[in-house]
Every structure is written in structure tokens, then in C-alpha cells.
Specification:
alpha+beta; Hydroquinone dioxygenase large subunit; 32% strand; dioxygenase; EC 1.13.11.-; metal ion binding
Amino acid sequence: MAMSEALEIIDFGDSKARTDTEHLAINNETGYRSFRAGGFTFTRDEYFARLTWPGGSHIIPIDAFLRAMMRDVAWGFFYGVVNFDHVFGTINHYGEVTMFAGRFNDAYRNAGRDHEERFKSSALMAVFKDILSDWTVEGYDPFAAPMETGLPWGIKNGNNDEAISRQRVTARRMVGLPGDTPVRTDANGFPVNRQFADVPQEQPVVEAEPGFEAEVSAYNLFGYLSRSDVTWNPSVCSVVGDSLFCPTSEEFILPVEHGNDRCEWFLQLSDEIVWDVKDKESGKPRARVTARAGDICCMPADIRHQGYSTKRSMLLVWENGSPKIPQMIADGTAPVVPVTF
């Protein structure tokens, strides 16, 4: 289940959102298929993803494109805006999704060259999954850190559907509770990552009173994160009402610039992440934040952010999953920051 599925899915009734998508011809030289969704077309060659839309075109290096597409698919379009780069991305309306070019870029908007189309989420998700499957070659894992995978370049050479079809962790209550998402171990296919070899693996001892065995639990979160086989993929590990704890392990670059539609809290559990923070609408720089172990920061609802981490680090993302927040922020009844000094 993608994180956005924890939110209310809105019924748009007789919405005019598009559902028209199409698989186009296979290129005889490269072996890759092209795709169409509405007025957008997607084509790849040995090095680049090439996008076109009415009145415009754009090129993204294929490694950056696949890493961003992997997150957009795995996250179910996530909260708010997923910017693949400074031009292309998606906006989640939780049941429908807008795909855009230049929507959050001042130069495009000022020149009247921005373009966007709204789709049923299920229709766009289907074509995104097919692009990801067709364009990911054997040996390349867009979920992995660059030093942990092969290369995405070249002509068509097999696929890696096993890697791109991983199911994200979405605990119903908490990891480790009976019937819920299990704790990671060597036995269930999650060895300790190469950069976390020094992390203790001992688990806490819980002695629950009879009758409360399914209600009282604990697990070693650091040990759990040390066994993550992906990067930049916050998974829901505990749920209390709308409060979601979503820890993750981070290495290299967050593949997208995430444009928030709500405040988002970050607790740096280990090592260091440098965050570039930009204005959500224009993309203009607003801040650079260096978060070290123990630091806590809040990303406001009117920004986009992208992180950089050399040493694989542990990050706890705290989300308020209430479906009411985006509209409350849009109409001014909820603030874009948690506190005003």
C-alpha cells in the first residue's frame, strides 16, 4: 500500500480527468517502448528520458528519471507535489493526479509555456509502472544507492521487475505486533547494510501480562533501519490515528524535490543530511539546512525540499496523514508553519 492510500480517496463523481494512455511502438535501434498519457509522450534512448507535450519538450538523464519515477510509483504520488526536476512532475489530489511541465517554474509560467493535464490516479499509475518496467534494465535498481547497483545506460537489456515491484512497509499499528509487518532479519531476506555494520542488533525483551500479548510490543528501530535494502523510501512503521512515523535510510540524493501540501517533521537519527529548501511555487532557493544526529526540523507546507547524504543515514519522517489538511492550508484555515516566532 502506498503512503497516500492512508489518506481518504476522494470520489470526484463525473470528473473530466483523463484516462487516455497508450503504449507506442518499440524503437528498433534501442529496443525500448515509447508511451503516451494524454498529451504527454515518453521516449528513452541510451542516456536520456525524452518528454514532449503540446508546445514543449524536455530531457532528463535516464538514471535521475528512473529514480524519481520509482519513488512516485512506490509512494502512490505521495503527499502534494513530486518534482522529478525543475520542470516535470506530478501533483496528488488523492484519487486524481495532475501531471505537469513547468507548473512550478517561474520562467515557464512567465513565458506561458507551462502545461498540465489531470488524470485518474489509477490510469496514470498504470502507465508509470509500465514505463518503469520497460525502461529499467537488468542489473539496475532505481531504489538502491548508486554504489549498490548496476548502470541504467545503453540499449534494452532485460528488466529488473523484482526490484521495482517491492512492496513498501505500511504497518497498520506498529512493526513487530502479531499479524502486522514483521521485524527485518537475515532469515526473511534483510541483511545489515554495508554502512550500518556497527549498529547493535539486540532486540528489547517485552514481558506482557497475559491477554495483552498482541497489544504490548517493542523493537530495535536502529537495527530495523540498518537492514533497509532501499534508500529515500519512508515506510509507515507506526500509526496512531492520523500520526504516522515513517523512518527511512538515506544515501546519495533524494531523487525528487518534494513539494509539501502539509507540514512535515524530520528527526535526524544518525549521521547527516544537507537539505536544499526552495519556494514551492517558483523554485527559488529559501534555505540550506544541515541536519545532524539529534536535530529536529519542520518543512513548511509552502516549500519543496531535496536532501543529500554521503554516509548512509537514518531519518524519522513524522507525517500528519489527515486528508483535511491540504484544503485547510489552501483556504487559509491552517498555517503553512507549525509555529510563528
